[in-house]
Amino acid sequence: MGKSIIAAVLCDQFPDNVLAVHFCKHSLPDRKNASRMIRSLAFQLSQRVPSYRDELAQRLPQLGDLSDKDELTLFDILLSQPLANLPTPAQFKSRKAVMLIDALDEAVDASGTGNKLLGKLIPACERTSLH
Prior knowledge:
single chain
């Protein structure tokens, strides 16, 4: 059984714990685009965590056009900063909540050549209340 199958089973078996999910795939442009992945995760989180949605809604008007931002900037303004400002929501005090990213090593930046997120992800997540 491969890692992607395990990730899919986790999503299926623990739907209340997996708040957002992205399956990267090197052969599919939309699924390997790191910026698209971050926007997708932010959308999914906004659907499941009302306090995150409210925090993000306050920030979005000042951010301007997101299409010209690189993946590190998007990660910071859409995920890291808003999550760092949230107290732990009551619904997660008694259970773990996760964002599941499968095959992150297959994600690429806008140039299609590298992945700057790998080194930033864990330290950024540790600064949030949802780690």
